[in-house]
Amino acid sequence: MSKRPSFVIDADSHVEEADAVWDFLDPSFAHRKPQVIERAVLKTPYQQDAFWLIDGQTFPRPYGQGAIMFGTPVASRFAKGKKFSIESQTLLPASARIADMDKLGLDVQVIYPTIFLDTLSQDVAFETALMKSYNSWLAQTCAQFPNRLKWAAMIPLRNPREGARELQRAKAMGAVCGLIYGTAGEKVLHDPEMDELWAEAEKQDMALSVHTGWNMTSLLNKMDSVYCSTTLGVVPSMFGLFSILGGGILDRFPKLRFGFFEAGADWLPYMITRMERLWAVYDRNKWPGIGPNGPRHWLQNGNVWFCVEGNEQFLPQVVELLGEGNLMTSADLPHDEALDGAIDEIQGRSDITETLKTRILTDNPQRYYGL
């Protein structure tokens, strides 16, 4: 295994939210504050026996249509059984996470949410209030270790105007990127209504991270198991990639930078090959709304980044397509997909150069996040 760079950035890890994240909830929604309920459920996958109760609905959903799984609330046996302490999972205190980072040789970690992998409410105003409370709490928490803990702000996509305001507020509080999903609820990201948000992100020079997650409820409801929803979690990211490269977003806002997280990158060559093949048929002269540049243009221009996993079979092909300057990796703490060894897997690969390894672990995330 090659020697690690002297400075390693984990581009994507998470907090498992505790009650404290709602401490900043708008008082007008105080009566709807999420509550933790504990109950014994026979044969529940992952020993999930604690749930969030939000507007009469429980999260996560281990069974049935729309099944989705995550490790919050941490009162569950599932969370308690993880190798990372509850203190580290919740960042309460944040020093517990720093201790785990030190053990893993991570100098900086960018913190993403967990609970917002699902749509928590169909009430857009309430969803926005939950996101704003989360952002305020995380800003305060990461500020305890500002050189070690960086954070991604939740951006309410279903309300683009409010999303633009929240992006501006989050940047002022210290966020290094805005977290979005592959769709804005039931709308595609290249819907003209979204342009106000993209314009603000470009103005703020704020990276936009397309994370796996189910913002389109109608699509999630077709998933009938956690295995199904987790495996197909890349599908919304594919929606997002099309919108960004083929839907005209970057043609209208060419200074934006988008990153794709927790979906790997093996699917990128397939998507680009397909988009380019169809570009000749559905180009901008024949289909209004499609931008003037082909999809590969924005890859070569450096606007699109990918967070890769250490064992991806087609990583060399991704490098050939994307170049060496736009790849990162993550430890994904404290989630259950066992990616905390990804850094060592990158280090141990023989099919990429030592220079690229340093770029993936240090240089590229520094540039993406503007650290």
CATH topology, by name, is TIM Barrel
CATH class: Alpha Beta
Count of DSSP E strands? Answer: 13
Shape: globular
> Mind telling me the C-alpha Rg?
20 Å
**Range of strand content:** 5-15%
Task: Estimate the helix proportion, in percent.
Answer: 25-40%
Amino- and carboxy-terminal Cα gap: 28 Å
Question: How would you describe this structure to a colleague?
Answer:
The chain has one domain (about 10-30, about 85-370): Alpha-Beta Barrel (TIM Barrel), CATH 3.20.20.140. It has an eight-stranded parallel beta sheet. Strands 2-3-4 form a three-stranded antiparallel beta sheet, with no helix packed on it. Strands 8-9 form a two-stranded antiparallel sheet. The longest helix has 19 residues, at about 125-140. It has helices at about 75-80, 85-90, 95-105, 125-140, 160-175, 195-205, 215-220, 225-230, 235-245, 250, 270-280, 295-300, 315-320, 340-350, 355-370, and strands at about 10-15, 35-40, 50-55, 55-60, 110, 150-155, 175-180, 185, 185-190, 205-210, 260, 305-310, 325-330. The protein is globular and about 55 Å long. The mean pLDDT is about 95. About 45% of the residues are buried. Helix content is about 35%, strand content about 15%. It has about 375 residues and is α/β, with parallel strands linked by helices.
